[in-house]
Design goal:
Elements lengths: L10 H7 L17 E4 L8 E6 L5 E5 L5 E5 L10 E4 L9 E2 L2 E4 L5 E9 L2 E12 L4 E4 L14 E3 L5 E4 L6 E4 L6 E4 L13 E2 L5 E4 L6 E6 L4 E7 L15 E3 L5 E4 L5 E5 L9 E5 L4 E2 L2 E4 L5 E3 L5 E7 L7 E5 L4 E4 L14 E4 L5 E4 L6 E4 L11 E4 L3 E2 L4 E7 L8 E2 L12 E6 L5 E7 L12 E7 L7 E9 L2 E2 L3 E5 L19
Parallel strand pairs: 33-41
Antiparallel strand pairs: 1-31, 2-3, 3-4, 4-5, 6-8, 7-8, 8-9, 9-10, 11-12, 12-13, 13-14, 15-16, 16-17, 17-18, 19-20, 20-21, 21-22, 23-24, 24-26, 25-26, 25-35, 26-27, 27-28, 29-30, 30-31, 32-34, 34-38, 36-37, 36-39, 37-38, 39-40, 39-41
């Protein structure tokens, strides 16, 4: 039913990769476009899913363990020169790999399920929520009646609820992030959710390509609480034996690039009406590699600021090597490989778009790489700021208003085995004199929808307590695309004199 692959054979890869990046001198020159380079410091021993927190740091899971690690960029916002620290661990009984995960609108991180637990294929129904402010994990119970979850697909909906599938059947559930209570949702699903991935569309619906009922596709319409037909892909994207397929990424033009485990790919054009079917078009096939068909039978893809989609393909199902491509809307363009590419299959990989526009890539080793893409975003894709405080203080919170704060896409996709969407705003401040870069923690986003256009959006942001005084250029950054900057001035709060009555200081929201 579900892939029985394991990661027990990764020791040889770890040995190959263990020394990569060690001792490399930091270079002041910018990295050339379409190139990979390692972080200055090796990551976790077996780096898995990376998640971008709303303060600009990156949480990375160490596979088959309760352990998480934090990557913090340097004082100039550079992740290559960043530092690693250990985070508190989840329950000692919870060491998953291939699970659902997401950053919620309040900044907390939710983790649910696991195809494996400490290397054993048990399809666990364990879960947890992490609060980055307190650095505390809280156990999260499974939806009622779900004895197994495993490698479930998930998404954060526009109304901020966490939506997750049960891989074993057609059930799905929504988590209210405030009450942490589950509600059963969704009727009419044609086949079970197993091995399928979800893509959030601009109309608030969820697109999936059916694994068992291939080449069919479906959309979940929240207002109907039902799945409806999304037509059929022009060629089968699903490997018949394993029922695996690749990621599907929403692009800025509103189409979805869906990759297949057969070597075939497709493009979905959403309908103009909520209950319409939409249109599927053929996309270029992956090329052959020494006579073997490249494909993505589980693997990562990431929307780049240019609008291209970076993806990792390998031959057959779970074979090596991995080769990287960018889809530009017309063609699949080969791009350079990571140092470990010859030794890994596409399913080893995870991608994450960073505020710098670079892509962070993990591959179950300690070698964490950064990809520098070419090209720039269309200015129409940028977030815009319409209301921002002129004066700010350390530790205080404020409201920021504008448009397109959630970007045009979830940006990253893998399928059922890994989820780490980044469709939420970050607030980056650059000091006018020192050039230091810091991020204010964002929370309370008005929506988690994508491609919201001219509809007003907002978020709250809280400034670090160690904020330098002076003038900053403040930008909203989403999916690696930054707004035009606005100037804000940081004023340090004066301490009341010992013989003077104290005054309360308004903290905003």
């Amino acid at each position: 039913m579900i892939s029985s692959r394991t990661v027990l054979a990764l020791s040889s890869l770890a040995l190959r990769a263990g020394g990569i990046g060690a001792g490399l001198a930091a270079l002041a020159l910018p990295a050339p476009a379409q190139s990979w380079r390692p972080l200055d410091h090796s990551g976790p021993a077996s780096a898995g899913v990376p998640l971008l927190l709303t303060d600009g740091t990156v949480m990375v899971h160490q596979i088959s363990s309760p352990s998480w690690f934090l990557l913090t960029p340097d004082a100039f916002g550079d992740y290559q020169h960043g530092t690693w620290t250990s985070l508190p661990s989840m329950s000692p009984a919870y060491g998953p790999i291939y699970f659902a995960s997401a950053v919620l609108a309040d900044g907390r991180v939710v983790v649910m399920g696991g195809e494996y637990n400490f290397g054993q294929p048990v399809w666990t129904n364990q879960g947890a929520i992490f609060d980055p402010r307190t650095r505390i994990w809280t156990t999260l119970a499974a939806p009622p009646g779900w004895s197994n979850i495993g490698d479930a697909q998930c998404a954060v909906m526009p109304d901020k609820r966490f939506f997750i599938a049960n891989p074993f059947d057609t059930r799905a559930a929504m988590l209210d992030p405030q009450t942490l209570l589950w509600t059963a949702v969704g009727t009419g699903k044609v086949d079970r959710h197993d091995e399928e991935g979800w893509t959030l569309l601009p109309d608030g619906t969820i697109l999936t390509v059916d694994a068992q009922a291939a080449p069919g596709a479906e959309r979940f319409v929240p207002s109907l609480n039902a799945w409806i037909s999304a037509g059929s892909t022009p060629q089968n994207l699903v490997d018949a034996g394993s029922e695996e397929m690749g990621p599907a990424v929403l692009r800025p033009d509103g189409t979805v690039f869906a990759t297949g485990a057969t070597g075939h790919n497709a493009v979905y054009v959403p309908p103009l009406t909520l209950t319409g079917t939409g249109i599927w078009l053929a996309a270029p096939d992956f090329p052959l590699y020494f006579g073997q068909q490249l494909d993505i039978a589980d693997g990562p893809a990431c929307l780049l600021p240019s609008g291209n989609v970076l993806c990792a393909a390998s031959p057959g199902v779970f074979n090596t090597p991995t080769r990287f491509f960018e889809f530009d809307g017309t063609s699949l363009l080969p791009v350079p490989q990571t140092p470990n590419a010859d030794f890994i299959s596409s399913y080893y990989g995870n991608m994450l778009i960073l505020p710098t526009g670079e892509v962070l890539f993990t591959d179950f080793s300690s070698d964490v790489e950064l990809y520098t893409p070419a090209g720039a975003p269309d200015n129409a894709w940028r977030p815009t700021i319409t209301s921002c405080p002129a004066l700010v203080s350390p530790g205080a919170s404020y409201v920021l208003e504008g448009t397109q704060f959630n970007g045009l896409s979830q940006a990253t996709s893998y399928g059922d085995d890994a989820t780490n969407a980044t469709n939420y705003p970050l607030v980056r401040l650059t000091h006018a004199t020192s050039g230091h870069v810091l991020f204010a923690r964002t929370f309370g986003h008005s929506t988690m929808a994508v491609a919201t256009g001219a509809t007003p959006t907002s978020t709250h942001f809280e400034l670090p307590a160690n904020l330098e005084s002076g003038t900053y250029a403040l930008q909203v950054v989403t999916n690696g695309i930054a707004s035009l900057p606005v100037n804000v001035t940081a004023v340090l709060k004066a301490r009341p004199r010992a013989n003077a009555p104290g005054r309360s200081v308004e903290r905003g929201v």
